[in-house]
Each structure stands twice: as C-alpha cells, then as structure tokens.
Amino acid sequence: MDAFLHQIFSGLANGCIYGSVALALVMIYQATHHINFAQGEMATFSTFIAWALITQSGMSYWLAFLVTVGISFAAGLAIQRIVLRPVEKAPVLTNVIVFIGLLLIFNALAGWIFEHTVKAFPSPFPQQSGLATKYFSAHEIGSLIVMLVVLAALYSFFRFTPVGLAMRAAAQNPESARLVGIRVSWMLGMGWGLAAAIGAVAGMMVAPIVFLDPNMMAGILLYGFAAALLGGIDTAWGAVIGGFIVGVLENLLGAYVIGTELKLTVALVLIVGTLTLMPSGLFGKHVVTRV
Amino acid sequence: MKLKHLTLAVAGIAAAAIGFSASAQKKYDAGANDKEIKLGDIKPYSGPASAYGTIGKAISAYFDKVNAEEGGVNGRKIKLISLDDGYNPARTVEQARKLVEEEEVLFVFNPLGTPPNTAIHRYMNQKKVPQLFVATGATKWNDPKNFPWTMGWQPNYQTEGRIYAQHILETKPNAKIGILFQNDDYGKDYVKGMEDGLGDKAKTMIVSKVSYEVTDPTVDSQMVTLKGSGADTFFNVTTPKFAAQAIKKAAEIGWKPAHYLNNVSASVGSVLTPAGLENSTGLITTQYLIDPTDPQFQNDKNLQDWKAWMAKYYPSGDLKDASNVYGYSVAQTVVQVLKQAGDNLTRENIMKQAANLNFTVPMLLPGINIKTSATDFAPIEREQLARFDGKTWVRFGKVYAPAND
Amino acid sequence: MTSADLKKRVLWIGGALLLVALVVLPFLVKNYRVFQFNLVMVYAIAILGLNILTGFNGQISLGHGAFYAVGAYAAAILMDRAGWPYWATLPVSGAVCFVLGFLMGFPALRLGGHYLALATFAFALAVPQLLKYKHLEGYTGGVQGIVLTKPEPPFTFRFLDQPFNADRWLYFFTLIVALLMFWLAWNLLRGRVGRALIAIRDHPIAATAMGINLPMFKSLTFGVSAAFTGVAGALGAVAIAFVSPDSFTVFLSIFLLVGVVVGGLASIAGAVFGAIFIQFVPNIADELSKSAPAAIYGVLLIGLVYLMPTGVMGMVRRFWARWQPGVARPSGQPPAR
Description:
heterotrimer, A: globular, C: 337 residues, mainly alpha, globular
C-alpha cells in the first residue's frame, strides 16, 4: 500500500513537470495556433543560461531566475519577429519544418556551448526546509506552487488584462483583430516571448530533479504534448490537470500493469484512445461547426 | 665473355637487385604511403548519442599531438577522417562504405555503439578491412575465428557483471538483488553478465528487474518499485544522467542497499557530484581507466600530462568528461599498432600487430594492461573493484583477470 | 507548332534523357555512390507515400517512420527466419503496411490536425519499443536486430569498364520498383481519386455533400500511403542488409516529413528532391562542422524553407507558370493560411 501511494505521489510529482511544459505549449497555441516543437529545446537552453549565470558568474538564484526569464522573453520575441514572420503566410507544415529546424539548432548549440556532461542545477527550496514531507521532496512541492502561481498569472492575464484580450483576439481572428486596431504581428511576438519565458521557468523547475544536459527535455516534451492535448490544447488549467493524469497513469501502468518495457506504448495508446472518444481533450471547448 | 657467363652474371645481378629491394621494401595497402597514413573513424556527432562525439574529437586531438611533436609515426603523419553516423546503423553502413571505397583508408577504428558496429560487421570482414577497437562492451567482437578483421577494446559488459556477481556471492550470499537497467543492448548485456555470474542462484537472488528507456524523463517510478520489492542489493545499469537520478532518488526515499554501479557511469565529477557525494558513499564499481575528477589522482603525473594535452590540443574539451580519457587511450593504442607495423603497412600486418599487443597506456589504472593474441581479441580485460568513500574511489581486492591474460 | 505541343516535346525529350542518365549513372561512379543513389530512391518512395497522405489528403502524419520500420522488419523476418527471396518480400511488406495503415485510419478520422500529429508521433515512438520487446525477440532479434545477406545479381557483365555487381543490381531493382510505384501513384492521383482526396483536404463538408465516402476514402488513403512507405522500408532493409530498432527512431518520421515539405506538398516529382535533401544534406552538414552538425542541418533547412516555402516543386511550378503566361492551370496545391 505504501509503495502504491508512493507511485501515485511520484506520478503527481512527474505530472507537475509535464504540466509546466504543457503550460508553455498551451501558451504558444493560444497566441499563435501553432504547436511549437522546439519548446523543449528552448527551455533547456534557457536553463543552461541560468546555470551559467549561477555557477560561472556567481549570481544568486532568484536574481538569475529573473534575468533568465527576461532573456528568454526577449529571445522568444526575437525568434518570432526574425525567424517566423517570413513564413507566417506559408502552409502550416512549412511552419512545422521551421520549428523542427529550431529544435535541431538549439539542441546542437546547447551541446556545443555547454558540453554534454550532466550538471546539477540548484533548487531554491532546500531539502531540509519545512516543506518536505515523506512522499514529496521540498523541491517538488515548491515547483508545484510555482506552477500554480504561473497558472494563476496566465489565467488572469488572458482574462482580465487588455493585452491578454488583444492576444486572444489576434490568435482567433487575425483579420478582425486588425480591423479593431490590434497589431497582430506584435501580439504573436509577445505570445512567443511569454511562452519562452514560461518554458524557462519550467526548465528551471525541472532541472534539479532530472539533471541538466542538452537532451533533458527530449522525453519530457512528448509527455508535455500528451498532457496538453489530453487536457485540451486551449485551456491552461486543463493542461496542468492533463499533466497530473499523464504522470500518475504512466507510473501506475509501468509499475503494476504492463511493466516498464512497454510503458511508453501503453501510456500513449491510452492517450490516443481517450482522444478518439473525446477529440478536444477532457476539458477543451468542443467546437461545433454548423454547415 | 662467353654468353653463358654473361647470362649468369645478369641473372645474378637481377636476383641481387630483387632481393635487395625486398628487404628494404615498404609495403602499403590503400591509405598508406611514405608521407601519411589515412585512417577512418565513425562517431555519433549528432543524434541521441551525440554526447560521445567528444571521443572522436579527443582522438583527433591526440593525433594532432603525435603529428606535431613526433612527426607522426615512423615519419608518416596520421590523417584521420572522422564521419558522423548519428547513431543510426543505416548511416554507419554508408559512412563505412565511404571510408573504405571512396576515402580508401588503411583501416577503420573505434566505431561507436553495438547496433552501428553490427551493421558493418560483415561488410568490413568481407572487404578485409580492419575494424579495430570498436567502442562497445558487447562480447561478440572477440571472435577471431569467424570475424578475423574485427577487434574490441574495452572490458566487456558481461565480464563486469560477472565480477559483481562474484563479489555478491562472496560477501552476501543471501542477498536479494534488484536491477535497474537501460532497455537496450548495453543494459541487457550487463544483466546477462550478472545472471551468468550468479549461475543457478540467479533466479532466487534476483527479486526485481526493471528497465527504463532513454526517453523516460526520470527513473523515480522504477526506484520506488525496486525499494518496494524488498531488495537489499542494487545493481545500477544506467547511463550517467539516470545514474545520478537513481542515486539521488534512492537517498530521498530512504533506500540504502548494497549499491553496485556500472563502470560507464562511475565518474566522480559527472555523476556522483551532481547526485550528492554523501548519497554516493559506499557505491561499488569496477574501474580500468583513471577518472580525471577523482581527487586521489590530482598529483599523478599521467593525469597532469593528460590535462596538459587537453589544454594544448583540445582546449574546448571538458576536463570532467571521462570520454576524453577514453579517446586519448584508444588513440594511443592505435599509435602503438602503427609503431609495431613499421614499414609494413598492409591491412594484414595491421591485424597481425593488433593481435600482438602487450603494453599499457598512461591513463590505465596500475595493474591493467592491453594484451592480445591470435586467439584473444579482447585487449583490455582486467578490472578492479573500487568503493566510493565520499571523496574518491578506493580500489580494493584483486585485479580480476581472465585465465589467458 | 503550338506552345502545348512544344511543351509536350520538351517533356518527352527531357524524360527520355533522364531515363538514359539514370541507366548509365551507376556505371560512371563508384559502388558506394551507387549505394547512396539507391537510398535516395528508397526515401523517394517513402516520401511519396507520406505525400499522398499529407500533401494530397491533408492528414498530417508524424509517424511514417513506423510504417517504414514495419515494412523493413517484415522483409527482414521473411528473409532471415523464413528464407524468402528478397523480391518476394516487397508485396508482403506493402500488404502488411496497408492493413496497418488502414487500421490507423479509423481513429485518425476523429482526430484532426495537431491531435493526429500527436497520435502518429506516439505511434512512431511506440514501434521501436515494441521491436525491442522481449516476448517478440524471437522474431525481431530484439535490440541486436537482424543481419541480412545482400543479394547477388542474377547475371553479370561489364559496361563502361565497371562490373555489374550487387550494388548496381540493387540500384536497378530499386529503380524499376520506384518507377512502378511512381507510375501507380500518378495514375491514382490524376483521376477521380486524386480529385476526391484534394476535395477532402480542402473542403471536407462540401466533399461529403457531393457524395464522397469520407471515412472510407480517408482510411484507404492512410492504407495506401502506409503501403508505399512499407515497400520503401523493405527495399531499404535489403540495401542496407541490417535492421535494428535504432535504425527507426522518431527522427526518421521527422525527416520524412521534412522531405515532403522540401520537395513540395502534393507533388509526386517533389518526392525525389525531398529524398535528395534528406540523404545528402546531413553529409554536407557533417563536413561543415563536427561540433554541431545538427545545427548546420537546421540552418540549411530553415534557409531552404525561406527560399522555397512551397518546396522545390512549388518553385519549379512558379517558373513554369512564368514561362507560360496566360495559361490557367488547375492547382493541386493546398491553400495558404
């Protein structure tokens, strides 16, 4: 029983990781209606920057955190303006190819600049603090809190601020948004900037657990996608809950049902099956098109 | 002079000339000439195993040193053509063919990974081009009868697994063993070695065997399963990132088994330090190379030489990465083979010299040597157990060596 | 003569010249190049398969590497475990992949766009794991894979001072199969079926209203597309003479999609350009940089997509259209966003 509970809690902790990556994916989707395959590698690169700031330049953790988030925002914005704007009008698949190109570039650059040896990334929630419990380490609880804060911030941003509203409009109906005076291109850029920033936060929360190396996000990204889609790609909190579900399922199935050798297969079959029954995910808006 | 004498004289001079040139003869196969020796090497510079690309760069840097400081080997500079296969066996086939058929190298050495090497195994032997010092620990490369052109280098994984099994039987014959292994040929080879080493007792002693994929984000779930199985001995067959995770998680969930860590992930700087040095105390591994991050060697002359070489010829390389020690040592083995071959640089002679090694290189631990023979195509077979005391790996016990070494 | 006649003549002469070139080429270059050209044709067939599904029918698949793997393993298992000759394995690979693709088509009906991309992506990741599965090891060889014997040519001769050896024989074998597959695809797509596929891609509701049986068509397309890629996989396995789970990672699926976009969506001839790209550009990247060849590949990829957003064939079509002003041409191209 103890082991069972432990698997569930371990799954929830993993789910926190998947949920934070899913948040970044949802962010980009809500802003641009694209799924960004390079999200993981961008997050890894941001985490490397934070690592360099902390270990090479001796910055304190939270200062490095803020600086990294700022740099990531600027970089995301720049990438949208410089790399993606030329292909805005091209077919969807062309954009997908550009994302793949970015993925390869970021991954290779991270390996080249920062080397492939495994690095420890510090956690701002020390092990001995009062936050730790038997099943969750202090860091896991801490990153859960951080993710919920980000989630709340995102929600209020989109719901209550004019800029957030403008971004949603630009994504849903660019032509009408332009007519109302919204600068659609800049909204897209901001969307990318925000997504990059959230990705950086996700990376910095994830790295202390899985250790930092250029391929850190490779496995996580897939589960992040699954989480985002399972919960519904257009709802932020759906993505987070999707993350928890995926994390727990993956652990339970691997430990008790099918063994670890087919864990990936079964977890994904389950997700695809769910999507077949509920095509917009568990919590997504079901869009009905009237002919 | 009579015609008969003239004929004899001419014949005699001709015979002498032939005999003279034969003795001073330099023999070359493709890729070798008076000025240079062209060698080929295939590494994953891109793709999932790109962390090992640094081995290729280290080898290249070592050849730079030999060319610059010693003028090459026997007056011939070494030219290395290193190609990327992305750890994709289909591309390994393509690159091996390019090296053999287009670049026409003398031989190919240290291709990395069991599937890539399996893909070119038959081809290299058909073409009679040496496939030397393959960078994998699988057992099948030591087969001179069927594959006389292929040779391994590092101690193979099954032997290492057997050494651990032997140690467990000696120190803890009633142990309950839990194994975490990577679900590929490397992981399965280690597990086989341990199972073989335990013999009949394997079924009763191994209480839990869980695998993970390289694409898994963490091994937390597997660690929880292992703890829950009641195992009190842990065989950890993971690559560095997952090894660090496993060590850390074991400490976090309060599981303190007798912990055997595979040699691939035994680096103090790259694995144990991120995992936590206190968490790693008591770990047991086997070693054959000097760990560049191990404090006990900091004043060792061989390590100082290595560091000086890295600084001069491979300054962008990571001084904490054991792969750079590996590349350095493989390159030195190749140079030794070339030195032994002298002026007879045919592929056949290269294989002959490779099967006639009996020396050691600086970064091998004391007591570990490189020895081959016509029936023994496994150059490095000796290993020694070591235990981590919180700061460094302390070697103990005997140096395990197979009967023919 | 009219410009239409001129165009026809140019096409015929061009086609004939191309054919002659293809036949003579293997005798002009070394074995290893012949091997590379062989792989280009294999990838071209695979990319053609994916293009039928994604370019013409609008269903995004990030999992075609899995069909390629199934086709390759089917051929390998038949050759190695059952002693079949290599040429007999091609139809079986095609049939197996057709069935598999058809089955995949049903859940795909309910998923659109990103969801389908994820589902196929998941499939691409699951297949290597299945291939390693210990209970299937007896057939698949597990992580060690299966080593095959390269087929010998049925006859030999010398031409232009080069022997007709195993590599050249395989090249011609693949060439014949490729020509056959391309002709099949062209035949299929230029008639009612092709128009139906494009209609489904662009205006699914209107297509249903016109009486096209959407579910049947979409699933059949999946099946046919998978069959093409499966046959390519079998040919690849024969040429490389080795299969293992590591040969068919998710990157293969990604690169096939890259090939489709680079060649041009909804273009049959584009498959060849796409294949040339994914076969040779990694080698170029390798020569330019050992430290980060993948980054160079990424840069070249993005650069190409900037220059030719609709692929190589898209650019060719634009030039062709400029050379022929005033001619209205029906476009099989997908609408821009």
